[in-house]
Write a structure and sequence with these properties.
The protein has a single domain, classed as Cytidine Deaminase, domain 2. It is globular, with a radius of gyration of 15 Å. It is α+β, with helices and mostly antiparallel strands. It is built from four helices and ten strands. It starts with a strand and ends with a strand. The structure holds zinc ion.
Amino acid sequence: MQKIPVITGNKIVISSLKDYFVDFQQERGAALGIKSNVISCFYPITNRSDTKYSFVPDFEELNKASEYFENQGCEFIGIIHSHNSYKSNSSVNKPSKDDINFYHSFSEANPDFEYLLFPIIGLENNQKVINWYIYINGELKEINMEIAWKRTANRGFFDI
Ligand SMILES: [Zn+2]
């Protein structure tokens, strides 16, 4: 078991992040930035995948995202991507095999991060729903951010 600070989201940032995901027939993604354990910045990243069923981030844009975050007083914390609505409903927001492989290799290539967030956004009953996943100690785990939203920022810890 490991404790990490509770991460919350700035309501305006999370709502404009949700607005960025408009087309659930084509996967897209964005880098996420954090300020004092609050998700406070995001940066759109072009999908370099050949298919509309997967997300492969443009690496140059990921580097640009880190620069942008630095200027905003944010730190890179992970990548969100959408799953399109063609996928079977029960698993729409679950990471694919390719996603998990990417999370492993990205985390291995960036060992300075204690943990990274890899949330997935998809449509559930026509509502945009984000499932939050944390990559820590070589494992991907789902965390219940809905509980975290209700707490005051910078208070408490997740048991991971
Ligand atoms: Zn995916």
